Amino acid sequence: MRPRALRARIFLDGGDPAGTRRVQAALGFLDGQTTNPTLMAKSPLAAAKLAEGGRFTPSEVMDFYRQVAREMAGLIPEGSVSIEVPADRDTSAEEMIGQGRSLFAWIPNAHVKLPITRAGLEAAKALVAQGVRVNMTLCFTQEQAAAVYAATAGAGPGQVFISPFIGRLDDRGENGLDLIAGIARMYAGGDGHVALLAASVRGQGHFLGSLALGADIVTAPESVLLDWAEKGLPLPGPEYACESSDLRPIAFLDIPLARRPEEYDISSDLTDQGLERFASDWNALIAR
Ligand code: E4P
Known about the structure:
Blueprint: E1 9-13, H1 17-27, E2 32-34, H2 37-42, H3 44-51, H4 58-75, E3 80-84, H5 93-104, E4 110-115, H6 118-129, E5 134-139, H7 142-151, E6 160-164, H8 166-171, H9 176-187, E7 194-198, H10 204-212, E8 217-220, H11 222-230, H12 269-283
Erythose-4-phosphate binds near residues 36 and 199.
């Protein structure tokens, strides 16, 4: 059962509908699901195919992704399912717009994931104007979050998510939860049109820390959600602080939200590396 005092929405981060069922059974509720190319490559059908040395054709791989997304959407009809546009550094805004429209039509409750690149922001602006829901992914800086806010100005309630990646910042010694805190504080001065979705959650500390910092949505892997269920679905108190003494703090930046999107510096080596990894995991599924 959903804890009464829980304000955030809880999503599962995974590529296997069997995991969706297990988490729903353990929690007694689930508000949505996020997928990405790496998670899809690990999904049992794809993983088995890869292990046997098999590959999909380009159209088969999209059929496979669509089938998985449809199964998830059927399991969480009232929730949101994030489907990621397969993109790399060279994917143009026009390509992302075309792919985004097509992914959005797969299921009634889709959010289309786009990377925070210049092309991704341009695509987000166009897609939002067409009524498409988007989830802006691979966010590693507060300035990127400001650019997403500006690019999607005028979006409707619930139409835009931003996914800052906590674990990948921790992996290189920076306190990823500070980015959640910084974006939440910056967005508090805005109109609320972008929902803060804490992603790359690696354990209870990230999960409870994100809830304590006021994330609108937290997406977490099955292992983290099952562990939370086993502990009795505890919520963090006002004093909750995730142990982070060995991580470098990320300072809050006083960034105005009122600039044009192109005025923000959205560069991040972690976004570049993340795009490369997603593209390589996705391309490994496809026979060329
Ligand atoms: C979810 O939307 C993200 O793609 C995911 O949380 C990334 O997690 P990872 O950094 O553990 O790969």
